[in-house]
Amino acid sequence: MSTPKKSKRFRFKAQHMRRIVQAAFVAIVTYVGIQHIVIGGGPTGAPSFDAFCPFGGIESLWAVLTNGSMLQKTNWSNLVILLATLATALVAGRFFCGWICPFGTVQEWSGRILSRLTGKRLPLAMPEAIDRPLRYMKFVVLAAIILATVWAGSLIFAEVCPYRVLFSGEVTTLGLIVLGAVAVGSLVFERFWCKYLCPLGAVLAVFNKITPFKVTCDTAACLTCDKCARTCPMSITDRPERIDSIECIRCLECVESCPKEGVLDMELRLLG
Amino acid sequence: MRVNRFLFPLIVLAVFVLIVGGAMLLGFWQTKGGQGRGGGHEGDHSLVPTIGTVVQLGAAPSFQEVNREYA
């Protein structure tokens, strides 16, 4: 007589909650974009899609501080969302990237869908010799955009921002090219834009060093199976006692993939 | 101190939502009427939701717009 198979009980994990939260923000942003397309802009139309971007708040900061005005298409909403984003960064680093950012979500999901459809192990990991220096490219992108915006006095980056092109429906040729390149990059290398190019990610990355919430690793109990490194969407492979990598997006994939309970966990340390 | 992996994101999301929600209630949630250089082609009226209203992503007349005809 064969032994009956044990049925797998569904366990609600933090990852399920993360996908729900990510889906909610994708839905909100999609709604904003569609409203602007359907209703149109102007005094009686829908607000500009740009009014809901936290990076628009960063781009407008110079204008706000020097002459008290916002850049065209930006408004108080940008500064409010920026404040909310920075507040979450003070608490939990690049949490925005891992739980809220719709563009990060689209990259993550598209890579995993392609992987399932093809049966191949995608996305790939960039060779380390290229990956390490390329991670600093997002800081260069940030500096270039800020300088260009201050010089032009307008949202000069908006024309080529792939996030804007994808969700707002306001498409430019150059924007489509950038979006296409990022899309291909994200299908091959997970979270390609987040890792190498995102200027907002560059701003939030520095908070990873000071936030009180961090993923910790019990290095003595660690099995060194590297399952956490394989599941990490940001390809973080280092496992010190406190993971304060500027790339960590607090997705908790590593914590939930670890085969040994309690080795990886989220901890709060107010001092040190 | 270990943090529950469900509680941690809820705390952080609460921070985000409270700031955005608080701004909406206090009247700081303006999405239109930018006064940037070159003027806002979106219009020069601010949309400040009052306490108790849901965020209006569509059009709503400002005080000036409503009262202009009475000026």
Summarize the structure.
The complex is a heterodimer of chains A (272) and B (71). Chain A has 13 helices and 3 strands; from the N terminus they run H-H-H-H-H-H-H-H-H-H-H-E-H-E-H-E.
Order of helices and strands of chain B: HH
Backbone shape of chain A: globular
- Biggest interface and which pair forms it? A-B, 54 and 39 residues
* Helix-and-strand structural type of chain A: mainly alpha
Q: How would you describe this structure to a colleague?
A:
With 272 residues, chain A is mainly alpha-helical. Chain A is built from 13 helices and 3 strands, in the order αααααααααααβαβαβ. Chain A has a 3-stranded antiparallel beta sheet. The longest helix of chain A has 26 residues, at 14-39. Chain A is globular and about 60 Å long. Chain B is mostly helical and 71 residues long. Chain B has 2 helices and no strands. The longest helix of chain B is centred in the first third of the chain and has 20 residues, at 7-26. Chain B is rod-shaped and about 40 Å long. The relative contact order of chain B is 0.12. Residues 34-59 of chain B have low confidence and may be disordered. Classes of the chains: A mainly alpha (272), B mainly alpha (71). Chains A and B meet through α1, α3, α4 and β3 of A and α1 of B.
